[in-house]
Each structure stands twice: as structure tokens, then as C-alpha cells.
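thought: fold this chain, then report.
action: predict
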Amino acid sequence: MTFKTGAQVPHPVDTLVWRPWELALAPFQVAPRTYYVSGQRWVGAYLVDAGAELVLVDAGPAESLYLLLDANWQLGFDPRCIGKIFVSHAHFDHCGAVAQLRALTGAEVWMSAEDAAFLRACPAETLGVDPRLAVFPFEPDRLYASGEPLRVGEVVFTPLLTPGHTPGCTSLFWQVTHPVTGGPLTVAMRGGAGVNTMSDAYYTTSACLTPDLRDRFIADAEGEKLRSIPVDITLPSHPNQIEILDRVGSYAPDSQPYLDRAVWPAFLDFIAARARQERGW
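observation:
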């Protein structure tokens, strides 16, 4: 799997609100224990089968919740068995369905302290960015400690604070086992990689975001801390950021079609360059 971007979804909010079925996408496996389950092709959500319980990485928007639930059932998983929801950042397209999912499943919701504060302070920039959207406010049950591993059943997750897109964007890394070789594999989703909230124009209208977040984003993307992590399988929070839809249905334990360590540093190069353009460098 070489790094390349995919096609953007035109008018995603309008389609989500009025015709969400047009974005429908059947679930598919991307890594050991890991499945794409958002049910639509605009924004990703990943289900990790940790054995003792199910973990959901991001929940998608409220408008496509029924597609996410159906995706779980299609894979043979009961969504009511989701025990934890790990939120990458406080934007409606990644956490708009969290409150409903928690009510349905009783799952424990985790996010960063920085984005929990962002969620409270700036509803117009988080869940309520568009009057067409349904808004279901929530408070997290637990807060990440950046860099501190979290064991859930048979899988270890490590959240890492990577701000920029929001003040508390969190990238998530989890360790799985290659089903054929038995060796360890690291799966990662870089939370909040979009630069749409890092333009000078956006900063003039934002009540919470400032240009120093963009500087931190660039420094992190270009820095050794992220680049030194040996990521085997890199997953996008939006499929257009890293093309994964071209391999839907091709997953096999022996071939691992999404495994390529070169994708992680290439993606970091890509997002750093885009942020530098927004800064005028």
C-alpha cells in the first residue's frame, strides 16, 4: 500500500442530512481485529475487537448513526457490546453520535481534556457548526493521559496529543498481532489531520483556535516523536486523506493489503506541507 489521497465527498453535510444512504458503505476489515464501520464514505470510524469488549475509535455524525449500527451487525458484532468509545477530536463528524451511542451501549467515552474544554466553550465550532445538524451534547467519562498506554482486553491503545485541527486532537495507536507470523503490528489513526481549521481566515472567526495551534501541528508532523513510531498500518479519519477504499473487501490475514510502514511518514509529510501552505511558508 503506497500513500495516496482519495476523492473528496462533495457537499457532505447536505447529503448526510437529507440523503445519508447515498454515502452508505459496507463495513470492511483493514487490520487484525480492526474494521471500518462508520457505514459511510465521508468520515471513518473503526471498530476494534479487543476480545473482552469492543472499542470504537470515533463515532461519526449523528445523521449516519443508523449506518454505523448496521455496519456492526453486518460484521456479526452486537453494537451494544461496545464498551469504550475513543474520540479523536471534538468535531461533529467524529463525535456527533457519541451521546446516542453511549445511551444505547453504556460505553465509556474517552477524549482529551483540551477538547472536552473546547466542546464546552465553543459549541458553534464543535457540534453545532451547521443549523441543519442534530446536536447531542455530551461530557466524556474519562480523559486521556497523552502517551500513557490503555489496555482493553487483548489490545493496548496509546493516545497521543497532536493538536492543531482542534486544541485537543488525539492520535490513537493500537497494538495487534499478525495472524500469520505472530509478530506485533502497530495500527494508527492520526486524529484531526485536516487543515481547514488552520487558515488565517478561520482564525479571524474562531473563538477558541489560534495560530499557535498551527505551529504546533507543523512541529509535531515534522518532529521525531511522531516519525520515530514504527506504524505498520496507517488509517485515515477521512478516507480521502489516505486512499483505503480502493482495497475494500481485499483484506486477507496472509497478505495484509493495508500494511506499509512508508505510509505513516509520507502522510506526515503531506499534512505538514498543507499546513505550511496555510501559514504562507
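thought: worth noting. The mean pLDDT is 96.
final: C-alpha cells above.
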